């Protein structure tokens, strides 16, 4: 069995957890992964990387690295939601501390450069980014439509080793780290599973003043025989945060997820909270919906 075949099979399995488990989605994921696996990424000539979209970082792109994490962010939709800078910061710090031979390359195609500059300053994201106003890297490579596949792990020759967003899926993150560290990427350790019952899959909020923070609770009940362990909780937007106990939840006990939503402006919103845990139903998809007036 070739290394490429192993990666394709494993990544198909991992990425399928991002979607509902129907045959159409599985076939689409498999097609994308097979198409992009070991494909060579073409970069624009001499891309400029800056800090806070202003100060040029000389030599950042030219660094001799064994691996690169490439992420492309387009101009469609909420830029803050797409970037998820608060999630990228600890991941980049982990790579810098443990795997200095890996470089992270942000290519952002914004509708407005000023909006990117403001967001980077607001989030205090001082890592180098390339403001790709002409959308050059996408025109050269034609990335998949699905945003989940806009992040790629590349080797020294810019060939794709893995595809998927490591800050939105802990399984993808684990896969990236295993490949970079040289561990067996297809080793799988079975975890003891339990069962979870959720009091509500979605909560609809009444209309409210957009300046007022909203708080709701989801209750997860462990109805299985094993302890429930939440590995990660990821929100679809930076304006949504989650608080919960990190302790294992015994059989028959509850775990409360406290969701806080702070609108940046008046809008109708539909936000997703994805819970990764050792339950057979994982990942759990929760939603909050409402109108911020």
UniProtKB/TrEMBL annotation:
This is DUF1573 domain-containing protein. It comes from the Bacteria. The keyword Transcription regulation does not apply. InterPro entries: DUF1573 (IPR011467), Ig-like_fold (IPR013783). The keyword Oxidoreductase does not apply. Gene3D superfamilies: Glutaredoxin, Immunoglobulins. It comes from Bacteroides acidifaciens. Residues 1-20 form the signal peptide. Keywords: Signal.
């Amino acid at each position: 069995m070739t290394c490429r075949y192993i990666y394709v099979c494993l990544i198909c399995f991992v990425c399928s957890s991002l979607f509902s488990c129907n045959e159409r989605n599985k076939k689409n994921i498999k097609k994308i992964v097979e198409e992009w696996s070991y494909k060579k990424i073409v970069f624009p000539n001499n891309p400029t990387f800056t800090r806070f979209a202003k100060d040029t970082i000389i030599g950042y792109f030219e660094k001799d690295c064994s691996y690169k994490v490439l992420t492309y962010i387009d101009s469609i939709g909420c830029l803050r939601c797409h970037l998820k800078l608060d999630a990228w910061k600890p991941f980049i710090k982990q790579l810098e501390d443990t795997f200095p031979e890996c470089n992270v390359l942000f290519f952002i195609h914004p509708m407005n450069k000023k909006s990117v500059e403001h967001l980077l300053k607001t989030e205090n994201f001082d890592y180098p980014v390339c403001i790709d106003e002409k959308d050059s890297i996408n025109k050269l490579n034609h990335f998949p439509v699905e945003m989940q596949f806009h992040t790629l792990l590349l080797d020294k020759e810019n060939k794709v080793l893995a595809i998927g967003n490591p800050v939105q899926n802990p399984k993808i993150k684990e896969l990236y780290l295993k490949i970079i560290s040289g561990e067996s990427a297809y080793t799988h350790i079975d975890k003891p599973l339990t069962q979870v019952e959720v009091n509500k899959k979605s909560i609809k909020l009444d209309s409210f003043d957009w300046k007022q923070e909203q708080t709701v609770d989801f209750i997860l009940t462990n109805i299985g025989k094993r302890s429930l362990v939440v590995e990660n909780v990821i929100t679809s937007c930076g304006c949504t945060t989650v608080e919960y106990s990190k302790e294992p939840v015994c059989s028959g006990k509850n775990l409360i997820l406290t969701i806080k939503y702070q609108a940046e402006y008046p809008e109708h919103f539909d936000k997703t909270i994805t819970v990764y845990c050792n339950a057979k139903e994982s990942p759990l998809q929760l939603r909050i919906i409402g109108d911020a007036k």
